[in-house]
Design brief:
The protein is α+β, with helices and mostly antiparallel strands. It has a single domain (2-84), classed as 2-Layer Sandwich (Alpha-Beta Plaits), CATH 3.30.70. The protein has three helices and four strands; from the N terminus they run E-H-E-E-H-H-E. Strand 2 (38-43) and strand 3 form a beta hairpin.
Length: 97
């Protein structure tokens, strides 16, 4: 199942004091990429991480993200959404009565 995860920084986070945590975060993300759990990762224009994960369900994604160093240390949280196939194109093929 595809999962969208968008990071939100906790107000008051001082990233300059989090060098070791950020290095551990990079290592954890790299490991998840190697395991093919994180399929895509970006920064948005506010420098929040945006990820597409492949997990069995939303809860598994939340559990995985909860183990990331920036989450464990209270620097960020993630909003997690399940991505579903887009069905809007079906409207083009509806039978009109």
């Amino acid at each position: 199942m595809k999962i969208l995860a968008i990071e939100k920084e906790i107000e008051g986070t001082n990233w300059k004091e989090a060098t070791d945590i950020l290095r551990a975060e990079a290592e954890a993300v790299y490991e998840l990429i190697q395991k093919n759990i994180i399929r895509e990762i970006y920064f948005d224009d506010l420098h929040n991480a945006v990820m597409i994960l492949e997990c069995k369900d939303k809860q598994e994604a939340k559990d995985i993200l909860g183990r990331l160093p920036i989450v464990k240390h209270g620097l960020s949280i993630f909003r997690v959404s399940t991505l579903l196939p887009y069905s809007g194109l079906e409207r083009l093929f509806e039978v009109r009565r």
